[in-house]
Every structure is written in structure tokens, then in C-alpha cells.
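BUG: 3D viewer hangs when loading the predicted structure for this chain

Environment: internal workstation, default settings.
Expected: structure renders.
Actual: progress bar stalls at 90%.

Input used:
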Amino acid sequence: MRSGIVDCHFHVVAPPQTYPMFAARSYTPETAPLSRWQQTLSPLGVTHGVVVQPSFYGTDNRVLLQALAEGQGRLVGVAAVDASIGEADLDALAEAGVRGVRMAFFDAGDPRARGGFVGFEAFDALEPRLSARGMHLQLFTDSRLLPRTADRLRRSRVAVVIDHMGRSPAALGATHEGFDALCRLLGDGHVWVKLSGVANISDAAPDYQDARALHDRLVQANPGQLVWGSDWPHTRPGHVPPDTAQLFRLLQAWTPDEGMRERILVGNPGILYRLPPA
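C-alpha cells produced before the viewer hung:
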């Protein structure tokens, strides 16, 4: 695989004394600077990236914006905003390289939800404003909830990107109702899906073979709207972080067709995120 690969999902974590975290966050990660992401991913051929706003910063996008400035045109971002954001502030995000906004869909009290996410209910008010700026929606949810939101996602006036393979537990297999809904949305071109977060849905570390069937079905559904992300620095609390290089090797092994890998790692991200060439 040549250079020019895009890591479409990673986070930057600043020292807490520099940028305080959201008070009602679900967990507190360790510091993870942009320089360490570069040191980890560059040997894999990664030259561009998508910095994603994590839940523990809420709608304070300052760390993300600093990373974009340091990226010197090789990074774009996915921020978090609520419906009250002003026009000038939304314009400033777009001008800084923000390509989308991240929201979450979970019921109140759902243990899978995390403090700091903007709820999906804000999408109706934000949708026309995102559309005017060429921004997309990135949705953090569980595939088992997608049957309830599928009709709304089909009507979206902006591109929709589903986080982490729909966060569908590998133990449920690749044919349950929620994953069926995800694959229909993907197959019909209504959503993009990130092939990321495998370590968060698998019970079979370090090879994660129980997630292979989900990967294969997504690739079969629509390889033209799949992108890959490392999920570095793997901030999931209470678990041993996976090896980033191993996750990349899995993507290569599970996608043996070189042309398809090229689309997922280089071509598709360039289209979705409007990235400059390597």
C-alpha cells in the first residue's frame, strides 16, 4: 500500500490543566498529543487524518481546532456543536477545516450513552445549516437502534457517517435486525460507515476474528462508502488498548483486494472529507 492513507477517526487529548474536560464526562483519558499520533501512524503510510471530537470535551472544540492548525492542511475535523451555535461560530469551524459534526442517538438512561455528546434531537435544527456549509453528520449509536432512525437518516439532506461499524457487538453476528438496517442504509447509499473501533465490539482480542463477518458484510454492501479509522489513542476505559499497527494489518488481511483497500484507505476518504492529495 502506498502512502496517502487517511486515518478517518482519531482523537487528540490535551493535558487537563491546559484544556479542562467536560464536567459530566463518562471517563477521563490520558494525554495523547498529535505528535504521538503522527509517530504511530506515519510508519503505516498514513499522511492525512480526521480529528474527531471526543465526548469528554463536550462542545468545546479548542483542542480539535489546535490540532487542525498544527496539521498544516493534512488534517480535517469532526466537531461537536449544539443547535444554539451562532452562524459566525459555525462559519469559523468550516473555515478551520471542520467537515462534519458528531452527535449520538441513545435513549435517556441507556448505559451505552456517554456524557458530553450532543443528542441526535439537535439534528433537525442543524441540518439546513450544515447543508449550507457542506458539513455532514457523524452518528455515534448502536446498530440495534438504527431501525428506529433509518427513515430519518434516509431523508437527510447531508451525508451521514456511522461511527465504528455501528458499534454492533460481534457476539450478535452479522444478521440481526440492527445490522441488517445498517447494511441496507449503506447498500442504498444513504450512509457511510467507518471500519473502525473493532476492538470495542469484539470479544476476541487480539485477533478480533469474531468481527470479521461484520467487516465482510459491510464491504459486500457498498465498498464505495466505507472509510477506515484507527480510533487512536483507544480511549475506551477499563480495557487494554489494542495495537494500532495490528488493527491496520487486520484491515489489510480482511480486505485482500488491493483496489478495494485503496478505495477504503485513500479514495473514499478523499471524496467524503474533501482532502488534498498526498
